[in-house]
From TrEMBL:
Signal peptide: none annotated. This is Sec translocon accessory complex subunit YajC. InterPro entries: Preprotein_translocase_YajC. The gene is yajC. It is found in: Cell membrane. The lineage of its organism: Bacteria, Pseudomonadati, Bacteroidota, Cytophagia, Cytophagales. Belongs to the YajC family. Its main location: membrane. It is a single-pass membrane protein. SMART domains: YajC. The chain crosses the membrane at residues 6-33. Keywords: Cell membrane, Membrane, Protein transport, Translocation, Transmembrane, Transmembrane helix, Transport.
Amino acid sequence: MINTVLAQAAAGGGGILGQVFLFGSIILIMYFFMIRPQQKKQKETKKFIEEIKKGDDVVTIGGIHGKVYSVDGDTVQLELDRGLKVKIEKSAISLDFSKKTSPTK
């Protein structure tokens, strides 16, 4: 009986390399399908927020549509209607919805 237990233990010892390869491939897949696209989107959003200028049509994350009236550091004044201006943070502007509503060039 002891010989069969030892034989089974010796046969199962070669699977460590396979497990390392499996975990490595899972981590690699997670990087390319989850982490890398998120980093790319964050870079695009940061670039979009830095390039906001007067006259741009934007949408806030709350769904407010407006035209940029002025940019002062980290804040933006949106003109929602003639004479109606709202001051918001740049980080409250949505890249995704602003791209959908802006006219194609």
